[in-house]
Amino acid sequence: MSISIKEIQTLRRLTGVGIMDCKLALKEADGDIEEAKRLLRIKGLNKTNKRADSETNEGIVAIYKDENVASIILLSSETDFVAMNVKFSQLACNIAKMATENLDKDKNELLAVKYLESNNTLAEEIKETAFVMGENIALNKIDTLSINSGVISSYVHAGSVAGRMAALVAIESNSGVNEDLKMLGHKIAMHVVATAPLAIDIDQLDPMIVERECSVVREQAIASGKPENIVEKIVEGRLNKFYQESVLLKQAYCANNSLSISDLLMQYAKDHDVHPKIIAYKFYKVGEK
What is the pTM of this model? Predict the structure, then answer.
């Protein structure tokens, strides 16, 4: 059967294999792209699949904000050399924008969306970029925050819209948005990047994490020979310290450790006669899964 140039180019883009090998595989598969990919893989020629299991511990975190909605994404690569490439960075920023424009879609659904003005889906664009860059690239995570009344603030460490660490913070306020509220949000987003809290308040902490913390402290205290009544006091004290270290509202503000984040919000409320509330945050860093 006759194989078109377009079919050969499509298979080459998807697999990274040479033109002649793609043509032969398509002929053998009677023009079926998926079967041709399978045949190339059997022959050990599919370069994209060869790299699929490569570790992607480098990459970039990108954010995009638009009015009362914002997205944060983690695009991973194998090396920091690729992560610093302008094409890779632009891809990450475009994905963040796409996530904001497709609020109803999760990561897998977003991968099926058409990428900008190209004929590729996002998944195809990522695969094509991986082929050009010569290493595995993966969209690890996406999250989107939205708010009806208030502000979504962001902070990117060592960058404007993309870097190795970033955070989004949504602060609810019925007083509208002003520069002071934006600055408060920016301060808290910067704090989140600096301290990586586990939850906004104690009620949102994973019970398994709390139980594990208590269990470790309890076992250590028992092993040291402490009596049972003292053991429980030690556990209680360590748990309170754990909350102060891990819960956003209880953490000491990184720019002024005489204030907790809760204190910072109360101070703003007193000065502006409003009551801002942190309703959500997202923190991403390169290397996490």
Answer: 0.79
